[in-house]
Write a structure and sequence with these properties.
Organism: Spirosoma endophyticum
CATH topology: TIM Barrel
Distance between the termini: 17 Å
GO molecular function: hydrolase activity, acting on carbon-nitrogen (but not peptide) bonds; metal ion binding
Number of strands: 8
Keywords: Hydrolase, Metal-binding
GO biological process, one term: carbohydrate metabolic process
Oligomer: single chain
CATH class: Alpha Beta
Number of helices: 7
Protein name: Peptidoglycan/xylan/chitin deacetylase, PgdA/CDA1 family
CATH superfamily: Glycoside hydrolase/deacetylase
Structural class: alpha/beta
Order of helices and strands: EHEHHEHEHEEHEHE
Length: about 200
């Protein structure tokens, strides 16, 4: 489904993983992520909620100053399947206004977006999905199991989803540093998703 979406990126000679973080920025949580990424010289892409940017703009600046990419994740974390198209598109624009920097990357919350919304969004953004969902937000999933499965399914070119949210915080803070160490030891690099030269790339 949706071959025009980005599910994986296989464009580098060296083994590369594309870490992404959804739902921030959040004080302490996002800052922890930045600290861990810095330890491994890792770059990542942060799909931000506009409302959180409005509340914690100083944290967004830290993300940008560290050289990471940002993407649009709507202003209110809207489920596209349950939202009128006009409201959904307006919410994306509202998030973009809060980000204050140009981005061509959009990720639909929950991965749910209607075909009618896709057509409109692709006029201005590339839609970035994933091939590895860590499940760090699932409180019923033990952290060690989350780590094992994340390592098991991650491969060169994988787009991996973590969450810099309060809900994911207990599991993410266990999994992320161990995942970074595991793949760094095996010669992997961590890159932010490249900004396409035009929407719909």
């Amino acid at each position: 489904m949706y071959p025009e979406f980005w599910w994986k990126i296989e464009d580098r000679v060296e083994p590369t993983i594309y870490l992404t973080f959804d739902d921030g920025p959040i004080p302490d949580v996002t800052e922890f992520v930045l600290e861990q990424l810095d330890k491994f010289a890792a770059q990542a892409t942060f799909f931000c909620i506009g409302d959180n940017v409005q509340k914690h703009r100083d944290i967004l600046y830290k993300v940008l100053e560290a050289g990471h990419m940002v993407g649009n994740h709507t202003f209110n974390h809207l489920n596209g399947w349950k939202t009128d198209d006009a409201i959904y598109l307006e919410n994306i624009q509202k998030c973009q206004a809060q980000l204050g920097v140009e981005t061509s990357l959009f990720r639909p919350p929950y991965g749910r977006i209607r075909k009618s919304q896709v057509a409109e969004v692709l006029e201005n953004y590339s839609i970035l999905m994933w091939d590895v969902l860590t499940g760090d937000f699932d409180r019923k999933l033990p952290a060690d199991v989350c780590l094992r499965k994340t390592i098991q399914y991650t491969e060169p070119g994988s787009i991996v989803v973590f969450h810099d949210s309060l809900k994911a915080w207990p599991t993410m803070r266990y999994v992320l540093p161990r995942m970074l160490a595991y793949f760094s030891d095996r010669g992997y690099s961590f890159r932010s998703v490249p900004q396409p030269t035009y929407a719909g790339y």
